[in-house]
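Q:
Just now I want nothing more than another pair of eyes on a protein record. Here is the record:
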Amino acid sequence: AEYQAMKRYQNDFLELVFELREQLAALYASAQNPAAKRHAKVQLFAAAQRRYQALKTERWNGFAGYDYWFGQDLNNAKLAPIGTYYQDVPAFRNLFVASG
C-alpha cells in the first residue's frame, strides 16, 4: 500500500511538472510581448505552487515529500531535468528489455 501511495504521489508530481512545461512552451511560442510573457510565467509558476499545495491537502493526506523541491524558486532550469529524465525512461526501458 505504501509503494502504491508513493507511486501515486510521483505520478501526480510528474503530471503537474509536465503540464507546467507544456503551458510554458505554449506561452513562449505565443505572440505576446516579452513583458506580458514574463508576467504570465510568474502566474504559471504561482499556479503550480497552489496546485501542489492542493495535492498535498486534498489527495496526498499531507505527504510533504516534494516540499523541498517546491520550496525553492521554480524556474525553467529546475523543470528541464525532470522532464528530460522521465520522458525518456520508457524508451530506455524498451531498450533494456530488448537487449535481454
